[in-house]
Amino acid sequence: MSDRGVRFDRRRCVILGLGLGAGGVLAGCATIVPRSIDISAAQLLDALGRQFPLNLRALDALELMVATPRVRFLPQENRLGTELDLRVGEGWLARAVQGTIGFTYGLRYEPSDRSIRMTDLRVERLEAGAYSLSQSRGSRLAAALAQQLLRDVTVYRLKPEQVDLLQRLRVQPGPVRVLPQGLAVELRPMG
């Protein structure tokens, strides 16, 4: 192969790698495929922010509205932490109650719609009005409901151009790792 051909192939690999937002050393296109799709904190916050406000209904009478996500990266646990503003609707309450809910969760890739979703959600803090998670059974019930309602929420969806590129490279997303300032979706050969 001519020197010009090698440069072209390397340039093409770099362009493919940049198209995925993937890092790694690119030395030659025939054997080099990005190892992951890297999602920055800004990309994640932008995608997550578009999911909210989220209106949820439970027990045919309880209306919850959650908004304004604030995210912490917990790479040592491979989890994200999120705090949301919470509003419990008037349903069976005399008036709406404002508060916050804080929880941690793992992430999984869902191939059916090419999304990254919450999994193994654990409510760690719930404050609504004068109540907190540790003060009442009602708050613990609300935390259990929140776990059910927020389970499997989409936090990020791959872009069509990323999906097309993955198909051309014959790789598919695998496990999701939490990094100090973002996510890495591992790529595996299609099998």
Layout of strands and helices, then pairs:
Layout: H1 3-20, E1 36-40, H2 41-49, E2 54-58, E3 62-74, E4 79-88, E5 97-110, E6 115-128, E7 131-132, H3 137-150, E8 154-157, H4 160-169, E9 171-179, E10 182-189
Antiparallel strand pairs: 1-10, 2-3, 3-4, 4-5, 5-6, 6-7, 6-8, 9-10
Give the helix proportion (percent range): 25-40%
Structural class: alpha+beta
Multimeric organization:
single chain
User: How does the overall form come out from the CA principal axes?
Assistant: elongated
Ends distance: 31 Å
**H/E element string?**
HEHEEEEEEHEHEE
Task: Please work out how many helical segments DSSP would assign.
Answer: 4
Structural overview:
With 191 residues, the chain is α+β, with helices and mostly antiparallel strands. It has helices at residues 3-20, 41-49, 137-150, 160-169; strands at 36-40, 54-58, 62-74, 79-88, 97-110, 115-128, 131-132, 154-157, 171-179, 182-189. The strands form 2 sheets. Strands 2, 3, 4, 5, 6, 7 and 8 form a 7-stranded antiparallel β-sheet that branches. It has a 3-stranded antiparallel β-sheet with strand order 1-10-9. The protein is elongated. The chain starts with a helix and ends with a strand. Mean pLDDT is 78; it is low at 1-19 and 22-31.
